[in-house]
Amino acid sequence: MIASLTVRLQREPFDAAAEAAKLRGRGDVGAVVTFTGICRGDEAGEPIAALMLEHYPGMAEAEIERHVAEAVVRWPLKGVTVIHRHGRIAPGEDIVLVVTASSHREAAFGAAEFLIDYLKTRAPFWKQVEKASGKVWIEAKKFDEVAAARWRAPGRKTAE
Amino acid sequence: MTVKVRYFAWVRERVGKPEEDIELPTDVKTVAELMTWLAGRGEEYAYAFGNPQVIRAAIDRAHVRPQSPLKGAGEIAFFPPMTGG
Questions:
Q1: Could you tell me the residue ranges of all domains in chain A?
Q2: pLDDT in tens, A84-111
Q3: Chain A within 8 Å of B64 (Cβ-Cβ)?
């Protein structure tokens, strides 16, 4: 049985270790996978001052919750936490956190990868970088589309 | 039918506003038709919607395809491919 499902959008930084610790300490949890996405200090070889993350309030939460619900159906999970920041984020700061807990590692690894792959291509967030030369919207990467597509079951109907 | 149309990221910047209420012409029935109609509203809209195949859309906060019908929609959003995570 699922013990804990948490989805949070926030401006403030989060404590990845503390969030992961919340999913431990149960007798049936044998594996916790934590993915943290961090703001790099450069984009396409040029240093950046900050990252600005725009999101679609309401839809962003709904999309993430929908994918967490799908992960729970696909893997035997004991807990899932997803936290995504928005607003201005400085290099070195955390952007996104995915924590999955299960009895065994396969489910925890699989679900964490599925969630981050889908977050990147389906959750309504847009990154803009502030460079010395000006502000630039980050373009979607083909790699991310391919990574998300591999989780689509054959014949499965998706919205896009 | 009046709908709320919202714009995000560079679509918002090009249109020059985050949202507006629009009275839909009766012959605009799909997401793709709405983008074509919007593109004809002025220079800033033409700039935003000149290349509609790169724009994604949502109706009432769920992803939709260009051929999706607008019937019953309350809020329609247009935005570039997502780059979160």
A1: 4-149
A2: 999 999 999 999 999 999 999 999 999 9
A3: yes
